[in-house]
Amino acid sequence: MLSDEGRAKVNLTLRVVGRRVDGYHDLESVVAFADCADRLTLDPASALSLKTTGPLAQACGETADNLVLKAARLLSERVPDLKVGAFTLEKVLPVAAGIGGGSADAAAALRLLGRLNGLAQDDARLHEVALATGADVPVCLASRACDMTGVGESLLPLNLPKLPCVMVNPRVPVATRDVFTALGLRNGELLVSAADVIESPAWPGGGASIGAWVDALSIVPNDLEAPAIRIQPVIGDVLSALRDSEGVLLSRMSGSGATCFAIFGDDALARAASEAIARDHRHWWVHAGVLS
Which among 4, 9, 26, 147 is annotated as catalytic? Predict the structure, then answer.
């Protein structure tokens, strides 16, 4: 049996450059990965299947629609006689939460199938299937900090320090499609000019401090935060709880929400903040850990 993890993806920044004529949105986002993850196992077998377990298994919806199976089927179309098997997904990350849970699971499935079939990590078919499965799957396939541009196909690795963080989700799902609709861009409309992209801040290099990264990240917002709050005002409550925490350096929403995060100067401050938020909001999902 093979196993892998689908680590939570966190958008430290997210700029919507514009909406293309085909309806897709061009983005620029600094992406990091958290130390909380779903777990996926693969037991080689003649038939492809998926079983979901874990505390949030019921939130996964219909198994037939799961991105794990979609990715596996797309790969089987490109790799002759692809060996498959029975997947078991232990679901612990919130769904429709802006942290790429489903995308991370699909990426883990591709990594497992790659190992089972002797495919190199840089096999072009894996990356082609990742993009065909979903916009966040390529970055989750790499599962390392990077600057992501376009519709998720262009990835520039970054050297992030370990960032102590708190992640909070109010257990309210937010559909990405609804947030982009609320943003209201027409096909072919730009939100960020080409000059703005050219003049965007250069991200710190290797060995840069947490403070240097926070200074750079604070310049670039998440353009989806305002429309997401209009759809689910509780996101504003989550951000307020994080921003009121002692020692917080930066806080904002990840992806299209509703998960929000805060960066702290050290692990102790992050743990204290998470404990206080969990105590005051017992129904929220709260995680203290590290982004990298």
Answer: 9
